[in-house]
Design goal:
The chain is of the alpha+beta class and 1039 residues long. Among the domains are: 4-428, Glycosidases (TIM Barrel); 976-1039, no CATH class. Helix content is 13%, strand content 16%. The chain is built from 13 helices and 37 strands. The strands form 11 sheets. It has a 9-stranded parallel beta sheet. Strands 15-14-16 form a 3-stranded antiparallel beta sheet, with no helix packed on it. Helix 5 runs parallel beside helix 6 (183-200) and helix 10 (344-355) runs parallel beside helix 11.
């Protein structure tokens, strides 16, 4: 049946919500519902479901188990998350529950959203029964409320969760909830919710959940339907003008087969007679008689109640729906305040033997199957709470919160042969719904695991597996051919959205509340809200009053209404307390809208650029004082004053050290001070400035200084102003910078002999004897950023050469200029002091002299410098210049043997010849080739792990044995391939020879790097190949 999967879960959720209710329901008041409506239901549901509605392997639609199977679920206490219940039941020797129920209000409040989200995260991907209670007003429910709840169910499914079963307005046939006994309103809102659930979920469904009908219509209840009310004609099903126990307790409330996936019913054992509270054993057959409508006992004769199971679950009734016991347990009043000799264990054991069917069949059979074969879900009410119906006694309904009780329950029910055969825990349900087995199955689609404790971790776009844990990167315990990196993303992690204002949505980028959007404040905080105004929010606590950028990190969950088209007069801003950045006008006469920064502007009489120390400390950031509106007082100035000459800046305009912003004045009051820029909002006068953060500043102002000079030092104007111009002076020694403590970015010279001005980045350069590109870990921690080591000045020793020497021919690089091995950068000198060393390039920032170089990472280097070497040769070995320079030119020499490369230890990429006879220069990649007797394409696992990258085996030279052929033989016609040239089976590459020595063999191509002779070839991976060579064969025939 199309909705069975959804029915199972929803019925389970419904049971949870009915904990204290005892009502009954009956079928709708419509004709032919047992025949025509069933067909309509199937056809309609099929059309509603569409392609996206799919059932899981072994389960019917709506998570309905197959015949003979029943989901065992729990309704947990609020402080008992599902993960705790599962662990407790496993430790008791039973099974982890296969479903859990949560109660929330609809429309959801912020707290309901948060609770539902966290409950789903803890539910271990089991079915979640959502008992949604319309306490506010059932008739006010909107489609958006239904769609919001459906969205939670969809996200749960997308994270690998089994799905939701929505148990809406449970026990609607009772008289104790605001939604009770309002048939029309209930049916219409139930159908609306069903439409939302079925439209956007793949597996979730609806549970129609009533209270068992004994005692209907529960006269005297707060929400009884009375004569004269609009509901009366619907509940008076026999039309006798009286609402009593002879009216059907179920039919008026049934919303239709097309929208019901499960039928649910609440049945408790409260005791023998009202008022409840006495600890008594349940009556024999109490459970079965309440559902069948056959109850007679101290509480009364209720044999007029319809047979719920017969009508809604059996083929004879015409609905054939799976049934869920949505809430059930037996009362035990803690401390026995109202008497009763029965123990909690005796009461619970009697009840679970009835509910689970163990009293009507031997343990070896399918317990209870003969009586209620369509009972496919049981949700036990596992709560301890005070009950008004039990004279406010504290009632213990639970079976898992007491270790001894849990062990007895597991032994009596779950571990009996019949119990194991019928009742499904989480592990069996996960296996039945197609979850993955550890390590061997791809869980990328299901996102769930059979084994408890395992999680579905993603490797890459093509593979995910169930494991107990995952470490990102390569897992070297895997077969070599599968050693690719794991991302270790948890695919079963449920999307977590944020609550309004109290949670940071910077990571989640989604909001729980409909109509809310995730707005960014700064790099450390973002929050959900209905709107956001850039700048400071003065409703926040003072310590949090920093500007909001209001960048939108998520789209609103609903489309906002269009903004008003007219701008009301109230838009003008009040002085100092409102942001006038948008209004650009002021309510007060004589005020002007001045800009502080991109986040704040306000109306004031005047504005001085820089920090206003009358602002509260947390707001003392610089004012730009850009005028966003014209002052309202301008017309009051005398219009007839003649213009004056532009005034020169008086001395008072210059800024005081450290307390005033010199960004505008660009001069300093104090002699010897300079105006240094921090950022676009602040500059001040100081004797010196070090780029970066100044940790002597108050913490709230510790942002980096650029130290750009906005003025010349104030000592310069003390020079006589009347001196005639001189030729452009060279930089005097006093201008040059001291080592390490001054920036030489401007001076580009150094006071210390032997030092050079090296650049770190755009904000800092200093004088040092030498510089190593990268991070200098001797720098203070706050300054440990990479050095580029670009030379901004020549070494100061160069000017010591006599300036009057006549020009000479370009000198060769003297030995002193060449670089020392390993400690100096030879990228510029391109020569080495040490004989036998060569200048090898690492990257664009570093090269040094060494005897040899192996491309890749050199693990002997300090960890911070372990980046790959290219080993490009920037100089010839220093031994080459020892050849006599005066030898006359000769014909181009062939590469002498000494130039050729040694096997395996030298790069033959340039020389392309080998010193060892019989060796060939094989290419690995663009950075390495070496001489070897042979080469097999792929990874060579005999190499050190850090060098295990694939060989292309492209031949860069002919084997050294070839020159042994007589060089004087006259040309002959091209020889035909001789048998000795053909390749042996499987051990030689026939890509060149294209013939085979063995008769009956053919040269088959694997890929561009390998082909060999074989009797036959099957395209794909040959698992008889060594593991490192298990790559696909194309099996193209090479002839």
């Amino acid at each position: 049946m199309a909705g069975w999967c959804f029915h199972v879960l929803q019925a389970a959720l419904a049971a949870t919500l009915c904990a204290a209710s005892k009502l009954s329901c009956s079928e709708p008041a419509c004709s032919d519902q047992h025949g025509l409506l069933q067909t309509v239901r199937r056809d309609h549901r099929k059309s509603m479901a569409g392609a996206h509605r799919r059932q899981l392997p072994g389960l019917g639609p709506g998570l309905e188990p197959p015949d003979g199977k029943t989901i065992f679920g729990i309704i947990p206490q609020d402080d008992q998350p599902p993960s705790v219940i599962a662990q407790r039941m496993r430790e008791a020797g039973g099974m982890a529950p296969a479903g859990y129920t949560i109660f929330i209000e609809i429309p959801m409040r912020s707290g309901d959203r948060w609770r539902l989200q966290n409950f789903m995260s803890a539910a271990q991907l089991a079915p979640v029964v959502v008992s949604a209670e319309p306490f506010s007003n059932m008739s006010s429910l909107q489609l958006s409320d239904a769609q919001e709840l459906a969205g939670y169910c969809r996200r749960y499914e997308e994270a690998g969760g089994a799905g939701c079963l929505l148990r809406y307005a449970h026990e609607m046939n009772g008289a104790w909830y605001p939604w009770c006994q309002r048939p029309s309103e209930f049916r219409s809102t139930f159908r609306m919710l069903a439409g939302a659930i079925h439209a956007i979920t793949a597996r979730s469904g609806m549970v129609w959940s009533v209270n068992e009908g004994s005692g209907y219509p529960f006269s005297g209840g707060a929400y009884n339907c009375q004569q004269g009310m609009s509901c009366f004609s619907e509940v008076d099903t026999n039309g006798d003008g009286v609402f009593d126990k002879f009216d059907d307790p179920y039919v008026p409330y049934y919303p239709g087969d097309d929208v019901v996936d499960w039928v649910g019913i609440t049945v408790y054992s409260w005791g023998l007679q009202y008022p409840f509270g006495e600890n008594q054993l349940p009556q024999d057959n109490y459970f079965v008689n309440r559902i069948r409508g056959n109850y007679v006992g101290p509480a009364g004769d209720y044999r007029s109640t319809p047979d719920f199971y017969l009508i809604y679950c059996s083929p004879q009734g015409g609905h054939s729906k799976p049934m869920m016991l949505t809430e059930s347990s037996a009362l035990y009043a803690v401390g026995a305040p109202f008497g009763g000799a029965a123990s909690n264990m005796d009461i619970k054991r009697n009840w679970w033997m009835q509910v689970f069917g163990l009293t009507v069949c031997p343990p070896s059979s399918l317990c209870g199957g003969a009586e209620f074969p369509m009972l496919k879900g049981i949700m036990w009410f596992d709560v301890i709470k005070r009950e008004g119906a039990a004279q406010n006694a504290t009632v213990d309904w639970s079976v898992t919160q007491n270790t001894s009780m849990a062990q007895n329950f597991a032994q009596d029910v779950l571990n009996q042969p019949g119990g194991r055969a019928r009742y499904m825990g989480l592990d069996e349900l996960n296996e039945m719904r197609g979850c993955a087995n550890d390590d061997v199955d791809n869980c990328a689609e299901t996102k769930c695991c059979v084994s408890p404790g395992s999680t579905c971790y993603k490797k890459d776009d093509g593979w995910a597996a169930c494991m107990a844990s995952c470490v990102p990167g390569i897992d070297y315990s895997e077969p070599p051919q599968y050693q690719t990196p794991w991302s270790c993303e948890d695919l079963s992690e449920i999307q977590t959205c944020s609550a309004d204002r109290v949670e940071n949505c910077a990571e989640t980028r989604c909001c729980i509340s409909p109509g809310s959007t995730c707005y960014k404040k700064n790099d450390g905080w973002a929050a959900c809200g209905s709107s956001c105004v850039p700048g400071i929010d003065f409703t926040e606590a003072p310590q949090y009053q920093s500007p909001w950028s209001c960048e939108v990190l998520s789209a609103p969950t609903v489309i906002p209404t269009a903004p008003p088209t007219t701008t009301p007069p109230i838009i003008c801003s009040e002085d100092r307390v409102e942001n006038c950045a948008e209004s650009k006008c002021c309510t007060s006469s004589g005020s002007t809208c001045y800009k502080k920064d991109d986040n704040w502007a306000t109306c004031m009489v005047s504005c001085v650029p820089g920090i206003d120390y009358t602002d509260p400390p947390q707001y003392q950031t610089p004012w730009s004082c850009e005028v966003l509106s014209t002052p309202t007082s301008i017309p009051t100035l005398p219009p007839t004053l003649p213009p004056t000459t532009a005034p020169t800046s008086p001395p008072v305009v210059c800024s005081e050290d450290r307390v005033e912003n010199c960004g505008e004045t660009r001069c300093c009051e104090s002699s010897g001070s300079t105006c240094y820029k921090k950022d676009d909002g602040w500059a001040t006068c100081m004797a010196s400035c070090v780029p970066g953060i100044d940790y002597s500043e108050p913490p709230q102002y510790q942002t980096p200084w650029s130290c750009e000079v906005l003025s010349t030092p104030t000592s310069i104007p003390t020079l006589p102003p009347t001196l005639p111009p001189t030729t452009a002076p060279t930089s005097p020694p006093v201008v040059c910078s001291e080592d390490r403590v001054e920036s030489c970015g401007e001076t580009r010279c150094c006071a210390s002999q032997g030092s050079t001005c090296y650049k770190k980045d755009d904000g800092w350069a200093t004088c040092m004897a030498s510089c190593v590109p990268g991070i200098d870990y001797t720098d203070p921690p706050q300054y440990q950023t990479p050095w580029s080591c670009e030379v901004l000045s020549p070494p100061p020793s160069i000017p010591t050469l006599p300036p009057t020497l006549p020009p000479t021919t370009p000198p060769t690089s003297p030995p002193v200029v060449c670089s020392e091995d390993r400690v100096e950068n030879c990228g510029e000198t391109r020569c080495c002091e040490s004989s036998g060393s060569t200048c090898y390039k690492k990257d664009d920032g570093w090269a040094t002299c060494m005897a040899s170089c192996v491309p890749g990472i050199d693990y002997s280097e300090p960890p911070q410098y372990q980046t790959p070497w290219s080993c490009e040769v920037l100089s010839t070995p220093t031994s080459i210049p020892t050849l006599p320079p005066t030898l006359p030119p000769t014909t181009a020499p062939t590469s002498p043997p000494v130039v050729c490369s040694e096997d395996r230890v030298e790069n033959c990429g340039e020389k392309r010849c080998c010193t060892s006879p019989g060796s060939t220069c094989y290419k690995k990649d663009d950075g390495w080739a070496t001489c070897m007797a042979s080469c097999v394409p792929g990874i060579d696992y005999s190499e050190s792990p850090q060098y295990q990258t694939p060989w292309s085996c492209e031949v860069l030279s002919a084997p050294t044995a070839i020159p042994t052929l007589p060089p004087t033989l006259p040309p002959t016609t091209p020889p035909t391939p001789q048998p000795v040239v053909c390749s042996e089976d499987r051990v030689e590459n026939c890509g060149e020879t294209r013939c085979c020595t063995s008769p009956g063999s053919t040269c088959y191509k694997k890929d561009d790097g390998w082909a060999t002779c074989m009797a036959s070839c099957v395209p794909g991976i040959d698992y008889t190949d060594p593991p490192q060579y298990q790559t696909p064969w194309s099996c193209e025939v090479l002839r």
